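lol ok so funny story. i was supposed to be doing the assay writeup but got distracted and ended up predicting the structure for this chain instead. priorities right. anyway since i did it might as well share w the group, maybe its usefull for someone
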Amino acid sequence: MADLMLEGQVAVVVGAGQTPGSTIGNGRATSLLLARDGARVLAVDRDLDRAAETVAMVEAEGGGASALAADITSEADCRTIPEAALERFGRIDVLVNNAGIGTGDGGATSLDEAAWDAIFDVNLKGMWLTCKHVLPILRAQGSGSVVNISSVAAVCSVGLLAYKTSKAGVNALTHQLAMSSAKRGVRVNAVMPGLMDTPMAIESISAATGVDPDELRRGRDALVPLGAKQGTAWDVAEAVRYLASDRARFVTGVILPVDGGQHARIG
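and the output, tada:
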């Protein structure tokens, strides 16, 4: 039997549910992969039913998991996340910040103020709040790993101002927290996914734009340098698993692109 990289550890996955679709989302794939490696998972989502679906999938594979409803734009809700992990599992070793939105985004002169605020509240403020309440536990025990999900949009030219800027903020937040936590034995890294074939990226965009899902996939595939094919949530989950595990024990402050080379395309 292969070694379990996270055996005996507890992982909190924020954004562990997903929008309905024919594929799997980053949070659900990450929850399953961490559980397969021996971690017990606290699946956090603002939609309890979707988190419970993820838990059921983990349990069906013989893993341990528990669902928690929390809105990360609320500091009161964020306080409940470590409380629930400690109450149900007795410890926290890994925090994965996967929740993110881009609804209503646009260019600088067309973007609505309310959409800007909502995107920043979820993508950046919410991530800071979860870290604010989990990091003290990790620092006190002198170990732990935080993995933030950013986006290649942070460093590429895209037509989504608030999403891009919020994800650039995630990269800066990751760097700052990594440096302030290093002496306390806690690692903080980020994954920058590129174009992924997930329900949020395909079904949600298709519903919003009226573009056929297969046509949308073909257009996105053509933008990827490596093999002209989008990645999947499993590619993101594999990167998270590495950064969360002791195999990355000497890695902190890293912003890891998982994008088929999209961030490296110049000209």
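The beta strands are 10-14, 40-45, 65-69, 94-97, 144-149, 186-193, 255-258. The CA atoms of residues 179 and 253 lie 7 Å apart.
back to the writeup now i swear
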